[in-house]
Design a protein that fits this description.
Elements: H1 12-20, H2 23-33, H3 39-46, H4 50-62, E1 66-70, E2 78-82, H5 84-87, H6 90-103
Antiparallel strand pairs: 1-2
Length: 149
């Protein structure tokens, strides 16, 4: 089934999901943050079929999330690296990670942990704050739709 394009949707969430909203794409981006850069490394890490991986990588390059560079070691390989647009997804990946830690692991169940390279400590929780610095919950917000409602 062909999915409907959301590229022209008036909602920023819909447009973002049109670009990176399938699970393979998000896992590729996660791995790119972990310094995975070669096709074979992505394939080994994810266990994804080569044709699906090739399609997702092409889509992420076309969307400007990844860019292709010559291999750093001078070999004939190409590498995939996050662009500035891709790097800006870091907060999204951390938020998904923290949500996953909260809701998908039993108490004291072991899982990977994202640590600060400066002190090897876990990151603080992501918080949404108002312009004034006040902590914001969903009930404290509303969306002004394009039609003004």
């Amino acid at each position: 089934m062909k999915r409907k394009s959301l590229k022209q949707a008036p909602c920023p969430v819909a447009r973002a999901l049109d670009s990176i909203g399938d699970w393979w794409s998000l896992l590729i981006i996660r791995d790119a943050f972990d310094k995975v850069s070669r096709f074979g490394e992505f394939q080994k890490s994810l266990g994804i079929a080569k044709n699906i991986l090739a399609e997702r990588l092409k889509h992420l390059v076309d969307e400007g999330v990844l860019e292709i560079r010559p291999a750093a070691d001078g070999s004939a390989y190409q590498e995939y690296h996050l662009t500035e647009k891709g790097e800006s997804l870091f907060t999204v990946i951390v938020a998904l990670r923290q949500w996953g830690e909260d809701y998908f692991f039993k108490n004291k169940e072991k899982h990977s942990v994202l640590l600060d390279t400066k002190n090897a400590q876990p990151l603080r929780r992501i918080e949404v704050r108002a312009q004034s610095g006040r902590l914001i919950k969903s009930r404290d917000t509303f969306v002004r739709k394009v039609n003004g409602t």
